[in-house]
């Protein structure tokens, strides 16, 4: 691996060609990933891909004029200190805002790199070449802004942002909330029934642990098998199942862990406080993301939790 400052003018130009080709393919990948759900943003990246290809064509013409037909393959990873890009296919969760910001960062990073390298170079021809490349990247940035303005007016962007929020609700918030509610509420009865039936912290902990993990596994499978997401847009079933199962287990473990404290009444008091915090958190999520009125959300969750809590104590005390 070589330093960028050690590259000859021929090698620097070959690297610039490779850079433009890679960026154009990244924009094509962005457009392909966004086309089904965000067609306006996909159109922006399709046009940016075309601009990158045009810049690559001009660089190739300049290279052929100065150095001939053969262009050596010099890639980003071959040059120390050069900007590295994470492949799009490795990005599992590629949301709209991430793509927009990454596109801006791509041009800005390359622009800064060329300007920094030009400032450190003592060779006049290399300085000129790097300066020209920096100007080209600055032009790309302005083109990107113009394309966004032309193809993504405020109303369309607001619609796409709203669609992104809805998908976040469907794919993350809903399965997570369902799991948290089930884990926090359904495990109350077996936990407190065991606690008041035995009067021993360790016995209550074992029952609560089993109930939490069992509920997590059950809810995870139920969510993953409910649908494959192809028609509902709820995303990958494995991801939803993992989110739902994990939140179910966490919801139950929250008020189970205090029973690791040997003193029974201390553990019970702390567990009760944890239950209150869990139910308050569920109410907040329902208000914040599900547009449920705060008083209604608090009453529904508290009433259901109180019924299950009372059931566990009554059965354990009988």
Describe the structure.
Strands 1-2 form a two-stranded parallel sheet. The longest helix has 33 residues, at 154-186. It is mostly helical and 318 residues long. Helix 3 (96-120) runs antiparallel to helix 4, helix 5 (154-186) packs across helix 8 (237-256) and helix 6 runs antiparallel to helix 7. It is elongated, with a radius of gyration of 29 Å. The protein is built from 10 helices and 2 strands. The mean pLDDT is 78. The chain folds into 2 domains: 2-152, Up-down Bundle (Ferritin), CATH 1.20.1260; 168-317, no CATH class. The chain has helices at residues 9-34, 39-67, 96-120, 124-151, 154-186, 188-198, 201-226, 237-256, 264-289, 294-317, and strands at 2-3, 79-80. Helices cover 78% and strands 1% of the residues.
List keywords for this structure.
about 325 residues; mainly alpha; Ferritin; 2 domains; two-stranded parallel ribbon; 10 helices
Write the layout of secondary structure elements.
Layout (H helix, E strand, L loop, with lengths): L1 E2 L5 H26 L4 H29 L11 E2 L15 H25 L3 H28 L2 H33 L1 H11 L2 H26 L10 H20 L7 H26 L4 H24 L1
Parallel strand pairs: 1-2
Helix pairs in contact: 1-2, 1-3, 1-4, 2-4, 3-4, 5-7, 5-8, 5-9, 5-10, 6-7, 6-10, 7-8, 8-9, 9-10
């Amino acid at each position: 691996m070589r330093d960028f400052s050690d590259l000859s003018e021929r090698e620097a130009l070959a690297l610039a060609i490779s850079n433009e080709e890679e960026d154009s393919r990244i924009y094509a990948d962005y457009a392909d990933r966004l086309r089904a759900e965000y067609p306006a943003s996909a159109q922006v990246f399709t046009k940016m891909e075309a601009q990158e290809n045009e810049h690559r064509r001009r660089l190739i013409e300049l290279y052929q004029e100065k150095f001939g037909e053969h262009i050596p393959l010099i890639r980003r990873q071959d040059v120390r200190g050069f900007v590295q890009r994470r492949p799009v296919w490795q990005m599992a969760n590629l949301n709209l805002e991430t793509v927009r910001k990454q596109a801006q960062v791509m041009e800005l990073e390359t622009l800064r790199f060329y300007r920094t390298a030009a400032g450190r170079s003592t060779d006049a021809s290399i300085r000129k070449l790097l300066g020209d490349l920096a100007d080209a990247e600055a032009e790309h940035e302005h083109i990107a802004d113009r394309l966004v303005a032309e193809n993504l007016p405020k109303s369309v962007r607001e619609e796409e942002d709203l669609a992104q929020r809805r998908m976040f609700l469907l794919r993350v918030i809903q399965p997570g909330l369902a799991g948290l509610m089930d884990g926090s509420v359904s495990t109350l009865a077996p936990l407190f029934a065991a606690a008041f039936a035995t009067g021993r912290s360790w016995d209550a902990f074992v029952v609560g642990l089993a109930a939490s993990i069992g509920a997590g596994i059950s809810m995870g499978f139920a969510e993953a098998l409910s649908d494959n997401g192809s028609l509902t847009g709820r995303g990958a079933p494995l991801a939803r199942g993992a989110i739902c199962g994990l939140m179910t287990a966490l919801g139950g473990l929250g008020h189970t862990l205090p029973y690791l404290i040997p003193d029974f009444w201390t553990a019970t008091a702390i567990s009760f406080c944890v239950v209150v915090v869990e139910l308050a958190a569920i109410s907040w999520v329902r208000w914040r993301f599900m547009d449920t009125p705060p008083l209604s959300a608090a009453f529904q969750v508290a009433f259901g939790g109180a019924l299950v809590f009372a059931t566990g104590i009554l059965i354990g005390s009988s």
